[in-house]
Structures are given as C-alpha cells and as structure tokens.
C-alpha cells in the first residue's frame, strides 16, 4: 500500500517533520536516565570482544557517510578509540589493516547499498567484527553483521534522506555512550547527562521546525535562482555543511559544495563574489571565533552570507541580514539541530524551482548496483 503524506505536500517535508519522533523512537529504552546505563542488546558481540576493539572503521555512502563523519568526533572524544571514516566504494577496494580487534561499523538507511554491503563482507573476511546501523528490519546488512543498532525512523520514502540521517546521528551518539561505558572512558554521571541532552534534542527539534520553515520560506526568494551555493562549517558541523550541499544538489540541481570553513582560503575563496551564496554554520561553540574570522573573509569579498547561529548572538546581525537563530544545546549535539535549516533550505528552494522533490532525476532510493 502507498504510504500517505498525511497532509504534507511531499514525503520529504513529512519526513523532515517526523524527525523529533525519529530521535525519540531511536533512543527509547536504550538509556537509563537514573543510572546513566546504555543498553544495546541487539549487538550480539560479547562485551569482551567489544572492549578489546582498538580501532574502528566507519563505512557508508552519501548521507550515511556524513553521519559517520560526525560520529568520528564523538567516538574519539568520549570513547577514546581511533576512528577512520571511509566512503564504501573506496573502502571495498583499498588495502585494509584489519584484524579481530578492529570493528567495522556500516551505516545504511536501506541495508542494501551495494558498496557498503561489499565493504562489510570484505572486512569480515579479513577478520573484522561487523556492526550495522540500519533503518530496515531484516535487510541484507543486518543479516550479515554481528549485530545491528536499528534506527527507528520509520519507512523513508523521499529519495533525499532526512529523518534516517537524524536517527543515524542519534544511534551513533548512543553507540558512542555505549563504548564509553564499556571502556569506562568517561564518568557515569557525565554519560547520564549526555544521554539526557540527546533525549532533549527531540523536543528542541520539535519546537524549532515550524518557526524555521516559515523563516526560510521568505528568505529563499532572494536565493533560489542562484547557480552555485557553498555550505561551510567547522568541527562537528563540517559534515553538516557537506550534508546541506548534498541535499541542495540532489533535489534542486543547484551546484553546491560543502567546505570546512578553515579550508576556504586554500582555494574555494576564489569563487566568492556578490553572486555566491554561502550558508555558514556558526554556533557559539569552541571554534566560534575561528569560524567568524572565515566569515569575515567571505564578507570582505561580497559573498552573500546566510548565517545559522545561536539565539542571542547579536554579532551575527552585524555581518548579514540573513540570520537563522537556533536554541543553544550541548555543543556536541549541534549537528542534530543545525541539520534542520539545511534540509528546509534545500526543500524550499527545490519546491520554488518546481523540482520533483521526492523523485529527483537520475536517483534511486537505494543504490543496489555498483
Ligand atoms: C541521500 O539523500 C542520498 N539519496 C544517498 O546519498 C544515500 O544516503 C546513500 O545512497 C546511502 O544509502 P543507504 O543509507 O541506504 O546505504
């Protein structure tokens, strides 16, 4: 049966608005907020095997790869395990340094992506332990892995992944907390608080969705006809810049690129002129001042800035009139919050350009051939 759009114009919009639920459903029952304990019984690997893990490969494609890039920051910070992030089509053919103390973690909405599947098969053959983070129950990857952490985002119909991505972030944060518990790398109370922040992020997303959608709806009038778009961010939000650019490319066919803000001066700043929109993710985080310096360089070259930053940061209005404010959350959960405006901007621009948002040209929901 055809899934319904529940009054929304597109599945993509419906799925963007289902993100608070996707977070809640993914986290439910997996953190005990009294004890700070994380439980992931679906991981059938023994705790001893997991505790012995010395290195992690995160393997994925597209949007799922962006979730992996965020998770590297989390796992290295809280579980103190070195992480490498690979695009699956590269991972499957390069030489790998794998043994039974290496964990390969595949991230996939569908669980059927050909390159990711080939990647875990190869890693397993070389002796790696394999876990998947997956949204489709019983999919091929979940059957082959030593354990699955399901994202409970519900069926995702839009070709452009939205709620599956947010659920992947939630699952990866949970998994980070789980590793920190096995490794005793952070105090219990710290883990409990981080778990609470993750749970709270669902409510924050719920509250900001309608407000931000309305604001972006008017803002895009002066941007929707542009030919190119840059997205920039630092740290944990650099992958969110990549994700924003991918969303815009996929559904609006505008050429877009995501960059680490500090990397602009090494080339892409040559592109900046009065016709180049640049969406910059500028929360009040530990790299805020550094990002602002990069933004000033864009402004000095007349780039058309859209800033997404923290409520109350009046500094941003002095730089550009196009500012989107988001509530302050724990710095490490900013990727969940800052993804929302990037998704909505892409959605509204694509609709304004008359594009087929749910079924963009040349794309399939899951790429099951190489
Ligand atoms: C996302 O908007 C894309 N349509 C695409 O990049 C997707 O994330 C990629 O093909 C990976 O799919 P998977 O998560 O099902 O493995």
TrEMBL record:
Please state every residue range assigned to the domain named SIS.
46-185, 219-360
What is the enzyme's class at the highest EC level? transferase
Q: What are the recorded Gene Ontology BP terms? A: carbohydrate metabolic process; fructose 6-phosphate metabolic process; protein N-linked glycosylation; UDP-N-acetylglucosamine metabolic process
Compartments annotated for it: namely: Cytoplasm
A GO cellular component term found in this entry reads: cytosol
Catalysed reaction equations from the record? D-fructose 6-phosphate + L-glutamine = D-glucosamine 6-phosphate + L-glutamate
Q: Which sites are catalytic?
A: 365 (for fru-6p isomerization activity)
Q: Which domain of life is it from?
A: Bacteria
GO molecular function, a single term: carbohydrate derivative binding
Q: Which UniProt keywords apply?
A: Aminotransferase, Cytoplasm, Glutamine amidotransferase, Repeat, Transferase
What is the protein's major site of localization? cytoplasm
* Enzyme Commission (EC) number: 2.6.1.16
State what this protein does.
Catalyzes the first step in hexosamine metabolism, converting fructose-6P into glucosamine-6P using glutamine as a nitrogen source.
Q: How does it assemble?
A: Homodimer.
Recorded protein name is Glutamine--fructose-6-phosphate aminotransferase [isomerizing]
Q: Where does this protein come from, organism-wise?
A: Desulfofustis glycolicus DSM 9705
Span within the parent record: 244 to 613 of 613
